[in-house]
Write a structure and sequence with these properties.
Helix content: 40-55%
CATH superfamily of the largest domain: Aldehyde Dehydrogenase, Chain A, domain 1
CATH architecture of the largest domain: 3-Layer(aba) Sandwich
Strand order of the largest sheet: 10-9-11-8-7-12-13
Mean pLDDT: 92
Distance between the termini: 57 Å
CATH topology of the largest domain: Aldehyde Dehydrogenase, Chain A, domain 1
Radius of gyration: 23 Å
Strand content: 15-25%
Amino acid sequence: MDTVIEKQTDAPLSADDSAAVIEKLARKARAAQHVLAGMSDDAKADALRAAAASLRDHAAEILAANAKDIDAAKERGLSSAMIDRLKLDEDRLEGIAAAVENVADLPDPVGQVIDRSERPNGLQFARVRVPVGVIGIIYESRPNVPADAATLCVRAGNAALLRGGSEAVHSNRAINKALAEGLAKGGIPEGAVQLIPTQDRAAVGAMLKAAGLIDMIVPRGGKSLVARVQDEALVPVLAHLDGINHTYVHASADPLMAEEIALNAKLRRTGVCGAMETLLIDKAYPKAEGVVKKLLDEGCEVRGDAAVQKLDERVKPASDEDWDTEYLEAIASVAMVGGMDDALDHIAAHSSGHTDAIVAADTDAVETFLNRVDSAIVMANASSQFADGGEFGLGAEIGIATGRLHARGPVALEGLTTYKWQVRGNGQTRP
């Protein structure tokens, strides 16, 4: 079993063997996390800068490994959106390294006092941020995740157990190797960031059941992965299931702005979770034909209701399922709505609670939308593709959470901490 744990393997494992692997790695992570929790802000930041330098030093090796994954993905017939998520080039790899440095430059949340109070009896109360502990990250074809997750976890004093998908297996191993080398140079304990050494699905099941060993699970991937995690996990989960995001073009919208935002929100990168999937156009908006034409001319397939189909003969009829579909492709569902209330009703019925946006010059309409749409992120006059922790000034993100507990929206350093109460007295006893 030690051989399996210490070396990457593609051999199948039994459920018992997988559980033993996860237990040993988690205990190693727990020991490392105790060391991390006591490291200074400067020490953690310097280690992350060393990790960023190591990523750059190993760029050729990482890109060669990624090329293997891309070739395998094409042979397996993966969609263009999946391949785009998987693909690395020099610019994207530099972006990953720069994101590591950005997190190193952020203030350490650990030890931050959230609030203080004093009771009439003189007891002083403080809520103080502390690390969550050991965090398991389960992800698919996103080679940026190992670096983002490791960086955020280490900065916030957590240990990370990473389990990547088979689509990115070579990229994951190369990136993890570079990260581990840099972090070790900076004095981070070896067990603080570990890549699960097997692609066997049983290892995922073992992570989900490792209550008491792993403190939180963060899934990043498709609907089937996240659904499995949420169904099977005995460990608390921080997740979003879909990114069914809407852009509502209000009657007062500037036509040029509406066209540019709709185009960017849908087509900048179709495979990201912040991509627009449904465009809602107010019936009172005078330039609806222009927005639809712009999408079609740029190669986007438009599936619309009866009113939208009349705008352009290239529009295909939308089915009931289209309004609840995360395409992650150059496809958009488009509907005409009869005003703000109609738009809000459609979003309430079909949004996944991730990111929804309005384009409007009317400030009252903007405020109504921002206050009444109950999604993790609501935007006005901006592309939903800004749904990203880096764009929010949070550095790298570990994911977008659409739940209502602990963290919501882009989850970065603060979302990877919890808090404890510190109570200071001077001899008080309770009557």
